[in-house]
Design a protein that fits this description.
By secondary structure, this protein is mainly α. Helix content is 69%, strand content 0%. It has 23 helices and no strands. Helix 4 (64-88) crosses helix 21 and helix 16 (390-416) packs across helix 22 (545-569). It starts with a helix and ends with a helix. Residues 584-591 have low confidence and may be disordered.
């Protein structure tokens, strides 16, 4: 029994060694501008046309500006973690490769499996949103026709098969299969149109802006004031925080840039620059439209479904709504390309490592793209978009994205304190006594290089920190009302958890860092990745129970794939088996 557990642990902890000099079978054709456009396009979708108005009216009021700033900072923290890994491990696969290098094979498979679901659901939700937007322009004629001809009477599914979504998905899949450069050119056009329309909205709306609209108050009774108390923060600080949690989802999508490690011309430089620049541009776009919306009209007069057409109708510029329509469709198309682009790269990376079926990672000799993975991913995405409604798709995407952000930030912490090459050559002779380890927590041993022991200490501390974050997030999500009311029991418990979190980060900070030189590194380690982990876990805990159940079902299916196929066909396992056989042959010949 003990032998089996040891063998299972060895299989789970098998780590991938990335050879950055190895030549990729994918074509290196993407420039920094291409990657930046990909990041903007995948992030700045239809949310910029809807999110600001809906959050302003129902959650935060004009203080939606602060909500977007908080969400942008949180997203930038996660983006910097991705940027470091993109420079450290310039390979296709994004967070999957990152966790394979640091955490081991089992965590890497779970990461890759989660990413597959994230990008499939993300693509399906975007194309479904595109279908709804186009259908609205034609008075829902498509919906009415299919509901009468082919109705679906299942509660959890769509009321009709959306063949428009299926056709668009397959069309975009074919476009992606033709080549990364060609598809990136199309994405650049969509993104440019989208940015131009957003800029038009900001400039045109600013001509009618009135800062006094930040001080107006809605009509409300003594017992009913659903639209807040008026002013800049009508829903208070809690509204700003809740708004930030909602606005955070408007920045999801930039991580697709990290999947292009084998197709970027200069990944060590391009990936960090593209992530930071794209997030910065997206933030200023959200900031601009938020200011315009809440100064042209009072926050309580916003239209939550179509704020910009409503704004232009109120000021008498009905012709401007067509610019918004063009921008929304372009934004959705860019988001769809950005969501579909990384998915075949994840499948390609996992298939190359033997964790999923090998044929899914085959590269087209003509187009130099993972054509089978692209077409399979497109077919799966199209089927989901055809039969599912939009809301459950969006909720599933959120939990997958936040989990991957958490794992990547944890990997950054572990890798930054890995064993130094200078000390590795000397060997690790640090005693494993309680006193030595306790002194090392506060840097009393005065070690100049990170060692195997200090790396193990950091790994244990990161695990403890994640557990503390989960406890803190559960407390905040379940008992926030009691904490705000000042109930002693919950406040004291929160203070204890915060002290433990800060202490853990300082214990990590006191450990010697690795001497490995990086072209880009996350600043303020371990505090910046630590804050990112806490925010991501808290946002995960705010999701509903049904989303967690669906996610658990997907992960159970993934565990079946790993235990019955991936664990036995892993290339690392096969290499070790081949190496052992060769050693046996050499030994038999010498004897």
């Amino acid at each position: 029994m003990k032998w089996k557990l040891r063998s299972l642990y060895k299989a789970f902890s098998r780590k991938k060694v990335v050879d950055t000099t190895e030549k990729s079978t994918l074509a290196r054709v993407l420039s920094t501008i291409d990657l930046t456009a990909l990041g903007i396009g995948s992030t700045l979708g239809v949310g910029v046309y809807v999110l600001a108005g809906s959050v302003a009216k129902t959650i935060a009021g004009p203080a939606v500006i602060i909500s977007f700033a908080i969400a942008a900072i949180a997203s930038m923290f996660a983006g910097l973690c991705y940027a470091e890994f993109g420079a450290r491990v310039p390979r296709a696969g994004s967070g999957y490769i990152y966790s394979y290098v640091t955490m081991g094979e089992f965590v890497a498979f779970l990461m890759g499996w989660t990413l597959i679901l994230e990008y499939v659901i993300g693509s399906a939700s975007v194309v479904r949103g595109l279908s709804k937007y186009v259908d609205t322009l034609f008075d829902d004629s498509m919906k009415k026709f299919f509901e009468s001809a082919m109705p679906i009477n299942v509660d959890t599914l769509s009321s009709y098969p959306d063949f428009f979504s299926l056709a668009v998905t397959l069309l975009f899949s074919a476009a992606l299969a033709f080549g990364a450069k060609e598809s990136s050119m199309v994405n650049n056009i969509f993104t440019l149109v989208n940015l131009c329309v957003v800029l038009f909205v900001i400039i045109a709306g600013s001509l009618k802006a009135d800062i006094n609209n930040w001080n107006t108050k809605p009509n409300c009774t003594e017992t009913d004031c659903k639209l807040g108390e008026g002013g800049f923060m009508p829903f208070g600080i809690s509204g700003i925080i809740k708004g930030a949690a909602t606005c955070f989802y408007g920045f999801i999508g930039f991580d697709c840039v990290a999947t292009t490690g084998e197709e970027a011309k200069n990944p060590q430089r391009s990936i960090p620059v593209a992530i930071v620049v794209s997030l910065t541009i997206v933030f200023f776009a959200y900031l601009g439209v938020s200011v315009v919306l809440t100064t042209v009209l009072p926050y309580y007069e916003q239209n939550v479904d179509a704020p910009f057409p409503h704004m232009f109708n109120v000021i008498g510029w009905e012709w401007a709504r067509w610019f918004v329509t063009v921008g929304a469709i372009s934004g959705l198309c860019a988001s769809l390309l950005g969501s579909m682009f990384p998915l075949p790269r994840i499948i390609y990376a996992m298939a190359s490592d033997g964790l999923v079926f090998k044929w899914m990672g085959n590269i087209s000799s003509r187009f130099q793209t993972p054509i089978m993975g692209t077409l399979c991913a497109g077919l799966l995405t199209g089927i989901l978009a055809t039969i599912f409604e939009l809301t459950p798709l969006i909720n599933m995407m959120s939990i997958c994205t936040l989990l991957t952000y958490t794992i990547v930030a944890s990997c950054v912490l572990i890798l930054r304190y890995e064993e130094s090459e200078a000390y590795e050559k000397k060997g690790d002779h640090n005693p494993r006594t309680f006193i030595f380890i306790a002194k090392q927590l506060v840097k009393a041993n005065k070690l100049n290089h990170s060692t195997k022991l200090t790396a193990q200490i950091v790994t244990a501390l990161v695990c403890c920190y994640v557990i503390l974050c989960i406890c803190t997030a559960v407390l905040l999500s379940m008992y926030i009302t009691e904490i705000v009311a000042g109930k002693v029991t919950f406040v004291v418990l929160l203070v204890i958890l915060i002290v433990a979190l800060v202490s853990t980060l300082f214990f990590i900070y006191f450990q010697p860092v690795s001497d490995k030189k990086l072209t880009f590194s996350v600043p303020l380690v371990p505090f910046l990745p630590g804050v990112s982990i806490l925010i991501d876990i808290y946002l995960m805990m705010t999701l509903d129970q049904d989303t967690w159940i669906r996610f658990a079902v997907w992960m159970v299916i993934g565990l079946g794939v790993y235990f019955f196929y991936g664990m036995w066909h892993s290339h690392i396992r096969q290499k070790k088996s081949t190496g052992n056989k060769e050693k046996d042959v050499v030994f038999s010949r010498t004897t």
